[in-house]
Amino acid sequence: MEMLELKKALFEGGVVGAGGAGFPTYAKLSDQAETIILNCAECEPLIKVDRQLMTDYVDEILSGMQMLVDTMGANEGIIAIKKSYLSSIEAVKSSIENYKKLRLHILPDIYPAGDEVVLIYETTKKIVEQGKIPITVGCVVVNVETVLNVYKKVTKDENVTTKFVTVAGLVKNPITALVPIGITVKKLIDMAGGFLEEDFIVIMGGPMTGKICSVFDVVTKTTKAILVLPTSCPPVTKRQSTTKSNLKAAMSACSQCSMCTSLCPRNLLGASIKPHEFMRAIANGITYNVEPFMNTFYCVSCGLCEMYSCHQGLSPRRLLDEYKNGLRAKGVKPMQKPNGPVNRLREERKVPEHRLINRLGLAKFDVAAPLVTCETGMKEVKLLLRQSLGAPCKACVKVQDKVLKGQIIGMPEDGALGVCLHASISGTITTVNDNFIIIVSGDE
Ligand code: SF4
Ligand code: SF4
């Protein structure tokens, strides 16, 4: 398929990155690409989507990868899978010889193996310099479910109307469910057998970077997990702390041991982010040197410094995020600059995922979450007009319209970075406003 044709199909099909911020996939396609990397690292603990898709849909995913490699004229496609995903590795090994330009790369079981910059270094030894994007080193990184969606659009003309979501933690039967986009978190938790305890907090996304949500929030194109966690576990208590309390704690308890910097995955690859210097500057009001503050842009918010590295239980990540967001709101942009050398102790300083899971108090929740399909029988869906990065959609339906599953109901404005939005169930439109569209079906 020609590049322009594929871009058009992915725009119309509503394909965005299903594993992270949801960048529109068509905008990633480039004839500058030399290497396409499939991210099967499932970066965050407890999420079990990609490894299972890789076993159950291996040929569809490898075909989708081959299609992307061919269309972009890249030299190769790398299937990057964590060492412990044994059945995914087996599935890929049994099929990969049919795909001439694809090769398998086994990743270590570390956090954050799925961070694009870390992944590119692990698989190609190339460094994406600070403030730059992967294509500057000829790489494009794609998520497993995204590639499955590319394959479905190109071969079956299926638009994106469903999402795979792991539901885990304090639920009776952890699952990874294929559900229509727009169903509520409560519905997903019911599918997993309901809550095990009364006292819980729900996180949408992984324990390191996900956000606290309500049971009335809805699944979007980027929802990868719903985690029902005890209120006392670190991923919850850290999220409930305030900037004021984090700052006070930094002022009184930061020992400047620099462990947060020593284990920072971006610093280990030569980036200038040094969380301990930022903590010293912000805790003591040192403003004559702006570097620690400007370097906040080179933090990827992986959370390792606050959830794992800091022996004082401080929260460098939350303070870094607060500061970085403030700079962005004032229109400050990150500078592009070369990285320093890769730390020669990087191999020894990688954080094993199993240790992180123990530190987070989540080992008992790290259990199987088998794939189940729950696509039908949904009475109502609420589709957000902003599903991902880029421009939100504008509704192109009105109340009382009858729609069919897969029909376009929203589109970005002409020329804006975004993709089409489709009805995820057939039914009648009951609400349309600037933020969402509700569809009600006659089915139970
Ligand atoms: S690890 Fe904690 S105590 Fe040590 S420098 Fe970093 S923030 Fe301060
Ligand atoms: S969150 Fe902390 S460990 Fe992660 S990139 Fe930022 S400073 Fe480094």
UniProtKB/TrEMBL annotation:
It comes from the Bacteria. Residues 379-436 form the RnfC Barrel sandwich hybrid domain. InterPro entries: 4Fe4S_Fe_S_CS (IPR017900), Ion_transpt_RnfC/RsxC (IPR010208), Nuo51_FMN-bd (IPR011538), Nuo51_FMN-bd_sf (IPR037225), PduS (IPR017054), RnfC_N (IPR026902), Soluble_ligand-bd (IPR019554). The keyword Metal-binding applies. Gene3D superfamilies: 3.10.20.600, 3.30.70.20, NADH-ubiquinone oxidoreductase 51kDa subunit. GO terms for cellular component: membrane. Residues 13-151 form the NADH-ubiquinone oxidoreductase 51kDa subunit FMN-binding domain. GO terms for molecular function: 4 iron, 4 sulfur cluster binding; electron transfer activity; metal ion binding. Keywords: 4Fe-4S, Electron transport, Iron, Iron-sulfur, Metal-binding, Repeat, Transport. Residues 165-210 form the Soluble ligand binding domain. PROSITE patterns: 4FE4S_FER_1 (PS00198). This is Electron transport complex protein RnfC. It comes from Candidatus Galacturonatibacter soehngenii.
